[in-house]
Design goal:
Elements (H helix, E strand, L loop, with lengths): L7 H10 E11 L14 E12 L6 E4 L4 E7 L2 E3 L1 H4 L4 E4 L5 E11 L6 E6 L6 E6 L21 E6 L5 E4 L3 E4 L2 E4 L12 E4 L2 E10 L5 E10 L9 H19 L8 E6 L6 E2 L4 E5 L10 H17 L7 E2 L6 H18 L5 H16 L15 H6 L4 H17 L1 H15 L3 E2 L1 H12 L3 H8 L6 E9 L5 E10 L9 E10 L5 E11 L3 E3 L11 E6 L6 E2 L3 H10 L6 H16 L5 H11 L6 H18 L5 H18 L5 H13 L3 H12 L11 H13 L5 H10 L3 H12 L4 H13 L5 H11 L5 H4 L2 H15 L2 H10 L8 H13 L5 H26 L2
Parallel strand pairs: 1-10, 16-17, 17-19, 20-21, 22-28
Antiparallel strand pairs: 1-2, 2-7, 3-6, 4-5, 4-7, 8-9, 9-14, 10-13, 11-14, 12-13, 15-16, 18-19, 22-23, 23-26, 24-25, 24-27
Helix pairs in contact: 3-4, 3-5, 4-5, 5-8, 6-8, 6-13, 8-9, 9-10, 13-15, 14-15, 15-16, 15-17, 16-17, 17-19, 18-19, 19-20, 19-21, 20-21, 21-23, 22-23, 23-26, 25-26, 27-28
């Protein structure tokens, strides 16, 4: 990986020297089918012609290409010796002219890691499917280029493929003489070019829009998936959300969608949620649901569709200059995903999901030692790869939500409109956006940006209530705190809500005031004289980005009456605050689990309920005192089964509780119930055990030794599909056997035989919380191999291994000391690798503090 890196300084030097006029890329992927001869990787031919200018004739530079071999290189008609100019990742370009033409004929490798041109063979029918994934810098695995976002250019692609295949790219295409040729794109960055090829199931539709001036816009729509998933593909719903999103963004952006057609491909073994390639968005195929799922899954898919659509403007039309300003696309897309979800679709409670789920991701990331400002310091491509994180996405989106409250929605959207028109097909930095927002809002954006975009960490807001002799509020203040490591106190526009219980036991808001919290203590004068509250909710309505704390009275009220809180957003905010308190060792894990057991059954929002299930499980596995874990597991399983039997038959809440019950089942009676539900000897009214749920039930049976490899073979025979294979691989690695663990470890760490999806499945199955003793020997092995894995494997697989195999289940001071020992002995290790280990160390230290807090509650 180090030889494939590119530094920010190198990129800036190259951008100052070169400008690109256009690319012609010709790929021949007919080699994707048929037998593979030879010991090396399966390859395809890639021929690239780049037309570019040089500001200093006679200077030298380089083009990027990662390929097993280069057949020929020609610069301005002069043949170059590939062995002299190509080092495996770069092509040396010397004595450049003012105008240049570079032609590179290479053999590039198909990918099995989801980076570059990924090749997937469907085990169900043997069909081969291809797709590309590049961000931040993997298009150089497919064609020669200048791999940095600010060297934009138009692209023309042509692809030779097997006769029975269809091929798609960013522009509209057609086949003639055995070659697929695609319309030239607008100027775009290399990382958002795309090719999808294979016997995909393809559905079409059309979007039409007539603007106020009478002009008409027509956008051909397409959606595709593997043939094996076609029976489950609800393309009508995908198109519905797509059209709703296009209407919403046209209404608010005043800039017509600029990239012609709009295809959406759901592809196998995808590392990300989705990727915003203009004209050809790619998604992970898990967004096609093979079994019954809850409304939260459909909402999540709609959010991702809209997130990627927002990128057509924020990221594709206007692109950041370098990865430092990645937030200029990802933060905006994350915010716009929820903004449009609520404003345009049936998922009008999208801000609840944002507050409960997206912000949880941000809060965790912002307390890690690797936290960084929203505008980050990205030194190189490895930094960039790791910065697709909770800060860049969810914190940035939260900050933008605060910005809308700060400048007003109209000023914010008008700023976006000017930004698009001013910088269309160009590249920008932070100052370019701030300047238009200053124009439209009349506010000085510099101080806001310094506090919110250029500093790291998050603040905690706690209410202080002083009551007068008559029992009314004499003074209500908000106290703001920050961690010593990141002491910045920020300006917050917040709503403070006062709640009390009704005669029926409901907890309802009776007073609210908005205030600008600035500095360590702010008095909210508007609430003086209000009746005494039982609950004070700082950041009611979730206007700002902060950790909420409670005064003593409010905390006691929640412990007794959280289920009576009638407003779903307020309830989600309280749950999130209580979870943060658990992670911060301010609330014992057993108390949080007790609250879930007492009140989660009354939770109406299915997304919040599923998040509570995840948090409760995490509290038990990581933050509960080891001596209490068995009791906590019993309580959670009993509670889950009780709620499962009480849930409305056939409801999504029943399904959620069924999945949670499987996640907590460990006692013989619970496992026998799961076995009976699988075999049909047990029934729960309304619960349909479809194929996906069967795999969910099988995993705990396998992990606890109540099902074996033969049972998994039989299940795969029932579900002999790509999805079934991933489930089987995960369950195989979950078996409680030393030999199984050794085999799983070897397949991931010592071999490159598994694809990215099967690496992920193996790692997930390997780390079973019930198998701590069985996994203990791998703590020492982990620290012995990670540097080699990082050096030898692709960055995606390296990340999967370093994160997924960290011995977090060996949660002891000894493991913490071993981690510190590795860090001390490897100060010169790649910064991205050290960051991953530092993050895992922080999670472990936090877990140990949580366990100490929980033990003190005994």
């Amino acid at each position: 990986m180090p030889g494939e890196n590119l530094s920010r300084d190198e990129a800036r030097e190259r951008a100052a020297l070169l400008s690109v006029d256009g690319y012609d890329v010709s790929l021949d992927v007919r080699s994707a089918v048929g037998d593979h001869a030879g010991d090396g990787p399966r390859t395809f031919r890639s021929v690239t012609t780049i037309r570019f200018r040089c500001a200093e004739p006679g200077a030298s530079s380089f083009a990027d290409l990662i390929a097993p071999s280069v057949t020929a290189v020609s610069l301005n008609g002069r043949d170059l010796d590939p062995s002299e100019v190509f080092d495996g990742s770069r092509i040396l370009l010397e004595d450049l002219a003012a105008e240049n033409e570079l032609v590179v004929d290479a053999r590039c490798a198909y990918s099995r890691t989801g980076e570059g041109l990924h090749r997937f063979v469907d085990p169900e029918d043997g069909e081969v499917y291809l797709y590309t994934q590049y961000e931040p810098a993997d298009s150089r695995r497919v064609f020669a280029n200048f791999e940095q976002p600010d060297l934009k250019a138009p692209f023309r692609f042509e692809v030779r493929a097997p006769e029975e295949w269809t091929v798609w790219s960013n522009g509209a295409g057609e086949r003639a003489d055995g070659v697929w040729r695609f319309a030239e794109t607008k100027p775009i960055s290399t990382y958002i070019t795309c090719v999808v090829a294979g016997p995909y199931h393809y559905v079409t539709d059309r979007y039409e829009r007539v603007f106020e001036d009478g002009t008409r816009l027509e956008i051909p729509l397409g959606a595709m998936c593997r043939k094996g998933l076609a029976p489950y593909f609800d393309a009508d719903d995908v198109f519905l959300v797509t059209k709703q999103g296009l209407d919403f963004f046209h209404d608010h952006f005043d800039y017509p969608y600029p990239f012609g057609k709009y295809d959406q491909a759901f592809v196998p073994e995808y590392n990300l949620g989705a990727m915003e390639n203009p004209g050809l968005v790619t998604f992970r195929e898990e967004y096609i649901f093979r079994g019954k799922v809850t409304r939260a899954s459909y909402e999540a898919r709609a959010n991702v569709i809209l997130h990627e659509m927002a990128h057509m403007w924020f990221g594709d039309l206007v692109t950041m200059e370098w990865w430092d300003d990645l937030w200029l696309k990802e933060s905006f897309a994350d915010f716009m995903g929820s903004f449009s979800l609520v404003g345009a679709t049936r998922f009008t409670d999208g801000w609840i999901t944002f507050a409960n789920r997206r912000k949880a991701w941000a809060y965790r990331a912002d307390q890690l030692p690797s936290t960084h400002p929203v505008t980050a310091d990205i030194r190189d491509l490895q930094d960039a790869k790791l910065n697709f994180d909770g800060i860049t996405y969810a914190k940035g989106a939260s900050v933008l939500k605060q910005l809308v409250a700060y400048v007003g929605q109209d000023a914010f959207l008008e700023g976006a409109r000017r930004y698009f028109k001013r910088h269309a097909y160009g590249n920008t930095r932070l100052g370019d956006l701030l300047s238009v927002l200053e124009e439209t809002s009349g506010r000085d954006m510099g101080a806001w940006a310094r506090s919110w975009l250029q500093t790291a960490g998050l603040n905690a807001l706690t209410p202080q209530v002083l009551l007068a002799a008559d029992g009314r509020v004499e003074e209500l203040a908000v106290v703001q705190e920050a961690a010593e490591s990141h002491p910045e106190l920020r300006p917050h526009r917040v709503a403070v809500g006062l709640y009390r219980r009704t005669a029926e036991g409901a907890l309802e808001r009776y007073a609210r005031a908005e205030a600008d919290v600035d500095g360590p203590r702010t008095v909210v004068a508007e609430l003086a004289g209000a009746e005494a509250p039982e609950l004070v909710l700082v950041n009611d309505d979730d206007l700002t980005y902060c950790k909420i704390r409670f005064d003593a009275t409010s905390l006691e009220t929640l412990k007794e009456g959280l289920g009576g809180l009638t407003d779903p957003l307020a309830r989600a905010l309280c749950w999130s605050a209580l979870w943060n308190m658990t992670r911060d060792a301010l609330l014992p894990a057993r108390d949080f689990i007790g609250l879930v057991l007492r009140f989660a059954g009354r939770e109406s929002d299915i997304g919040v309920l599923q998040m509570l299930h995840a948090w409760a499980n995490s509290a038990l596995v990581h933050y509960a005192a080891p001596a209490w874990r068995a009791e906590g597991e019993r309580l959670l399983a009993e509670g889950a089964l009780r709620e499962l039997r009480a849930a409305e038959p056939g409801s999504e809440h029943q399904l959620a509780w069924a999945r949670f019950f499987a996640a907590t089942a460990s006692r013989g009676s619970d496992l026998e119930l799961l076995k009976g539900l699988l075999g049909g000897t047990e029934k729960i009214d309304g619960l349909e055990v479809d194929q996906e749920l069967r795999w969910v039930f099988l995993e705990p049976l396998v992990a606890h030794g109540h099902a074996d490899g033969k049972a998994l073979e039989a299940e795969l025979a029932r579900d002999d599909t790509a999805s079934g294979k991933r489930h089987q691989v995960r369950c195989l690695a979950a078996r409680p056997s030393a030999a199984v663990k050794a085999q799983a470890w070897a397949r991931v760490v010592e071999s490159e035989a598994l694809s990215n999806a099967l690496v992920e499945a193996t790692i997930t199955g390997f780390a079973q919380p019930s198998q701590r003793a069985l996994l203990a020997p791998y703590a020492e092995k982990y620290f012995a191999v990670i540097e080699r894995v990082w050096a030898e494997r692709s960055i995606q697989i390296g990340m999967d291994v370093v994160r997924g195999l960290f011995p977090s289940l060996q949660d002891s001071p000894e493991t913490l000391a071993a981690t510190d020992g590795w860090l001390a002995a490897h100060e010169d290790a790649p910064p991205a690798l050290r960051r991953l280990v530092l993050e895992a160390r922080d999670d472990l230290a936090r877990a140990l503090r949580g366990q100490e807090c929980d033990a003190a509650a005994e």
